[in-house]
Hints:
By secondary structure, this protein is an alpha/beta fold. 45% of the residues lie in helices and 15% in strands.
Amino acid sequence: MILPRTPSFRLDGRRALVTGASSGIGLGAAAALAEAGAHVTLVARKLPDLEAVRDAIRAAGGVAEALALDITDLDATAQAIAMHGPFDVLVNSAGLARHTPALDTTPADYDAAMGLNLRAAYFLTREVARGLIAAGKPGSLINVSSQMGLVGGPDRAVYCANKHALEGMTKAMALEWAPRGIRVNTLCPTFIRTPLGEQTLAIPERRAWILSKIKLGRVGEIADLMGPVVFLASDASALMTGTSLLIDGGWTAD
């Protein structure tokens, strides 16, 4: 008998682009991809922060470079991807949250959140796919969404709106590019202990609400997302596209 073999989780020889890579989920994703053998290009707005991450990855034996870029500047983003690509893997982790009751949402907050979380994500994903198509290569494009892309939450009308839209965008792009071997999926974490997440976790009543919803009884850590990122990027998930990988501790199970 010849036993089937597990597809490789290794990413040797592949080039990955990670946005929001200077902290939080993006930093964890970059470290995980580098550990799996990918050559990682780190993207965020502040070069000194990126250089610190780059140096840490290199010190750990990985391969990384820093690229300071504001992905809401669509022309600059398209030029950078054309210059530095093609990229076999994208992890789009750049994002922001401005939580307010819906009645208090300002147009400025709405535009800022939609501009980065949805508009920039759309055109970034498109440009990475454009580079892969021109090179005749397959790829794995991962948009960091949220459990809030599938459910609602208090004071999160704008955030839920852009994450729900990101889910729909991902499905449509996955259908369009599947014949070219380009997979598009989302990673949907629950509340993760990051500098951004701590803003909510520091409010006792919000933390209590969060823990009541997470069935495993704890908030997430960056390490909880590192394995799933490598899985989606690698051949181990070769038949997955147009879907959401929920890392939510059971939040959406009921």
